[in-house]
Amino acid sequence: MVKKIIASILVLSFLFFGMSINSFATQLEEQKKAAEQEKNKSQQELNQITNEKKSVQQEVESLNDSIYETQAKLSDLEDNIENLNTSISQKEDELSVKQKLLDERLSVTYMNGGNTYLEALFSGGFFKFVSNYDLIKQIAEYDNNLIDEVKNTKAELEESKTQLEESKEEVESKQTELQSQKAEREEKVKSLSTEEQAAQAEVQEKENEIAKINSAVKEEQKRLEEERKRTAARNASTSTSSSSTSSRSSTSSSSSSSSSSSSSSSSHTASGSMAWPTRITRKVNSIYAPNGRDDTVGYYGTKHKGVDIYAPTGTPIYAAQSGTVVYVNYSGYGGGWGLYVVIYHGKDSNGNAVYTRYAHASSIASGIKVGSEVSTGSVIMYAGSSGAAEGAHLHFEVCLNGMYNQVNPCPYLGIPNSLGTY
């Protein structure tokens, strides 16, 4: 009979620890699943930002090519304009020379006799007048044609120059537009780079969170396995005693086990009434408003899945109920919560796993880590304004069946969901 009792105790002990491991592991797996979903979402956002950044960078490269082409066109146009300027200058010199020669023929006497066109026309008498007239006429027409040719060539060159300068203005305008577009796209690349870094940090933060959860599972399993071995050793030692001693010991052990189980159940069961997490003025600055709040100036319409409790920087924050620390964020933005602690309190009378979250700490209390057992009133951290907080306060949440399923925490604290001092 004694052996049967001892065997029953051993079986119950193993079942208890097995259930403890499975229950706690299940909760951690739920947390891990939620964290992985958040990570996947952040990774998708990161991929979208990265792809958009690559696309914009390709646009910048294409604009660089276009700017290079316009610069080459400008260079060619400037060379052509310079060549035309040289040609125009040459034609002006040529025109000047020819005009001077014509002027000399019309107004200056020849070196050999001082004859002008008119004198040459009437020289030799009447009979040579006709032949002299034709000759002089041909010379004059030749000189005038040369001048007209030079003038026409110069006009054509100037017209070409005007067209080239207009083309140059158009290309310069196009280049200015391309450079403006390039500057805009480069600014967009910088903006996307900043978003990309933020998204990468978010992904890394989720990976760190998953790693912490995995570590918590291993530590808890190790702790419970060691406890199971110690219990098995105690029970095995008890089985070697005498029948009468074994009977008394068995009865005592059974009573102790029942008491331990009751104590454990009590310490891990949400009672529906939690202790206030500070020891100063019990004041609520912002209410629980999952669909959008209107209680705080500047935050109208924003969702708020907890209550903000008055707590100046450095105020000690206490566990609202006994339980096991399942997550601690020691640094960084922490998804907006900053430095925060999550405690698992076991299941309530309805079978719901109960968690509390304490956010925006300035620092975490010494000794608080994943796996730590805390009692009601244990100091877990100190108030601050880390994460997405305008000023120092405590953001307090109650979650059921997972770290991210927030419910109204006010009934647990025994207060109405409204601003005020309690």
How would you describe the overall organization of this protein?
The chain has 422 residues and is an alpha+beta fold. The protein is 59% helix and 13% strand. The chain has five helices and eleven strands; from the N terminus they run H-H-H-H-E-E-E-E-E-E-E-E-E-E-H-E. The protein has helices spanning 2-107, 117-122, 129-238, 243-267, 410-413, and strands spanning 283-286, 307-309, 316-318, 323-329, 339-347, 353-364, 373-374, 379-383, 394-400, 406-407, 420-421. Strands 1, 2, 3, 4, 5, 6, 7, 8, 9, 10 and 11 form an eleven-stranded antiparallel sheet that branches. A hairpin with a 5-residue loop joins strand 5 (339-347) and strand 6. Helix 1 (2-107) packs antiparallel against helix 3 and helix 1 runs parallel beside helix 4. It is rod-shaped and about 155 Å long. The model is unreliable at 14-21, 108-114 and 242-271 (pLDDT under 50).
What is the CA–CA distance across the termini?
58 Å
DSSP summary, beta strand count: 11
Rg on CA atoms, Å: 48 Å
Global outline: rod-shaped
Structural category is alpha+beta
Helix content: 55-70%
Strand content: 5-15%
Sheet with the most strands, sense and barrel status: 11 strands, antiparallel
Order of helices and strands: HHHHEEEEEEEEEEHE
Low-confidence stretches: 14-21, 108-114, 242-271
Q: Top keywords for this entry?
A:
alpha+beta
Give a brief description.
This protein is an alpha+beta fold.
